């Protein structure tokens, strides 16, 4: 009697044929649709799979089982299915943390968090235990938390940030120099003192204010931000503003948002260390360096030590550029003259009395071993009288054209001299 063969039947997605179970999985169905180009069919298979996963959640129909990719890993999680689910069974995390021993002197966690906020310091955590919750029940899927804990080696609690920087204007009474737009932000709060700064603004002048709330005092510190490589122009503004501050006049910090005074007071303790003896000398020095650089389209590299000759040359050329002339007094002077027909005639007709002597010549000024040329300088000596006029006349009679004669002049009466400069001859 022959053996009976079992007829294949469809049973829950599987086929039984000749006692062999042939799996017909969701993956097979998905690949079959994709290979056939049936995208809609593939989407239906995936929707069926998602529904099948969802119902296994113990809190269904409020939550379903979802799958989330974190990096290269798939992690199960509890997916809320409605707003009601979140309201009735709110997802949350509870846990325990232990802080570093450096915080052992703090009374409680609130004090630690207060310290963290006021100093904007991250709090170090020694150990942390976390658990996901759904309402008051433990979330059955802790994969996200477990993955986070396994991949994190160092824990720190970040402080809540101070409010963002706000725009202000800083002015000093009686001064035409002001800083019309600085962004001040709280950087620290300590011992009833609030520290504000504009360092986040990344500009060449840094303002730091300390508001002493207990004693009702404000400390101001202004400095150049060397990381920003301040220009001569910004340095000059800084020095002029500092000069106004040293005058101990009233200052004001004005909110640009509200057009209101944030704080004001008298500058009775403002100090400034000056390498030039006084701030006026430094202002003049930087101003003249700026004029020289601008006129000659160059950069003057200032060494750490400035020799007296260089300093004198800077002031000379700076005054020439700023005022166009330099005045002074003179007593006497000896000059070389080249004998010519015109010179001989002028000496012959010269009377023995004072006159204005004018000499014309180019000028070379050397600053830090670098030459700067003035095309034309007219130097006029007031009330000049030639010394030993008769002897000079006799010498001129015997000298030939091209010879050089030294002549001495002395000042009589008004002994002023004027140097006038021509920088751009047409």
Number of strands: 22
Q: From the alpha-carbon coordinates, what is the Rg to the nearest angstrom? A: 44 Å
- Strand percentage, roughly? 35-45%
Largest sheet: 7 strands, antiparallel
The strand order across the widest sheet is 14-13-12-11-10-15-16
List keywords for this structure.
426 residues; alpha+beta; six-stranded antiparallel sheet; 22 strands; disordered N terminus
Descriptive notes:
With about 425 residues, the protein is α+β, with helices and mostly antiparallel strands. The chain folds into four domains: about 10-50, no CATH class; about 85-155, no CATH class; about 165-270, no CATH class; about 290-420, no CATH class. The chain is about 30% helix and about 40% strand. It has ten helices and 22 strands. It has helices at about 25-35, 40-55, 85-90, 110-120, 145-150, 230-245, 280-295, 310-325, 340-350, 390-400, and strands spanning about 10, 15, 20, 65-70, 75-80, 90-100, 125-135, 135-140, 155, 165-170, 180-190, 195, 205-210, 215-225, 250-255, 260-265, 325-330, 330-340, 355-365, 370-385, 405-410, 415-420. Strands 14-13-12-11-10-15-16 form a seven-stranded antiparallel β-sheet. Strands 17, 18, 19, 20, 21 and 22 form a six-stranded antiparallel β-sheet that branches. Strand 2 and strand 3 form a beta hairpin. Helix 1 packs antiparallel against helix 2 (about 40-55) and helix 6 (about 230-245) runs antiparallel to helix 7. The radius of gyration is 44 Å and the shape is elongated. The termini are far apart. Mean pLDDT is about 85; it is low at about 1-25.
